[in-house]
Queue: 3 jobs
Job 1
Amino acid sequence: MYLVVIGWMYVVLMMSVAEATNTTGSVLGAIVTFFLYGLLPVALVVYLMRTPQRRKAIKAREAAELQARVAAESGDPDAGGHAPGAAEDDRIASVRKEP
């Protein structure tokens, strides 16, 4: 797809150069030609062609956020990634130095 875009921009650039160097042409006409035949249509086509990729990226980001939210809301003590602060069961004695 990008090869077509590069080729079209080359054609439009040559059209603009021909407009600017023609005896009846002008630099303003060359600039208008470059923008109206080149940049604006190519930007629109590239934007429309990348729509499926943008949608896929948005869905992937939403799925990752949902997975992170589910992991945070689950009762799993290791889901937060922090070390446990205290024993969860009172029957387990804490480790201490011997006197």
Note: The mean pLDDT is 83.
Job 2
Amino acid sequence: MTPAINAAKKGKVKYNIHEYSHDPAAASYGEEAAEALGLEYGRVFKTLLVAMNGDNRKLAVAVVPVSGQLDLKAMASALKAKKVAMANPTDAERATGYVVGGISPLGQKKRLPMVLDNSAERYDSICMSAGRRGLEIEMAAADLMRLTGAVLAPIGRGE
């Protein structure tokens, strides 16, 4: 069990686990997951960390579809920050307790501000990392938001 799966269990939400054979040479972990599981790219979400206002100690979490990218200006707006930039991978790993490519929005070491792209509302359930490469957890977006305190905002682009 990963901390993400334990968080879902503890939160008493309905979830499914999907496991696949991870290819270390994969260019995109999220796209690899979507292809391996036969899911549409818009339904599989990636977890990204940003640093707010140029301070690598003030991190926040963005959860966006693997089919697009994070709109940094929209993320800053959702966080009511002047600006955000992608967090240093080492800082992201330290703050979450997960390795890059396996960062889950659930079960992080420290509860950080979190924004979920509003496209998640289109689906009955969405998939995201369950805490390691090759392992995805599927649940309703509303359950993810309840467990993490995430807010919904249009932070993805190019989907």
Note: The chain is about 25% helix and 30% strand.
Job 3
Amino acid sequence: MKICNIFALVPYSLFVVQYKSEETHEFGRLLACWNDAVFLEDFFEKHQDDLAAFWPEITLEEAVIRTRNEARVLESRLLAVARKGRHSQFENLSTMFKPLHNYTYSVSEFEKSKATGGQAKSWLRIYAVRIDVNLFIISGGAIKLSRTMNERAHLLAELRKMEVVCDYLRTDREDEFGIFELF
């Protein structure tokens, strides 16, 4: 998996990668999937046991509707916080993105992070790499219906994407996309 480009969603704040294997950047890909009823029906049918294990009261149809609604809210909230965070110390992307692992207590050079949907027990995830307080690069995202990311192939792929972005940032000495000029 290789990065072919990095785009600014919100200049000086929120960036997103596009992989060579994809036609669009990851944020656009996620939103397209999360708003596509056919994709969501297929996904929830395939992962019906996971859905029932954590949310037994939710039908497949309700899961599709909930995902589409929550995706719209997550998109607008993420973009608004990214814009506001350029001028606010109280609300910025670091208030929205949390360390990927709950046991992370210190910030590493490039911290793997996650943002979740606004609802309690949200299954939507946007994964990103934290460079600074209000500077993140979205590496991907997923619907997470399992306890850990190590239990499902589509979640393991998201872990790999975060690692690809971290490796790229560690080794890109020429700063091809101008990320390090921002801070």
Note: Helices lie at 26-34, 37-46, 48-54, 60-85, 93-96, 153-171.
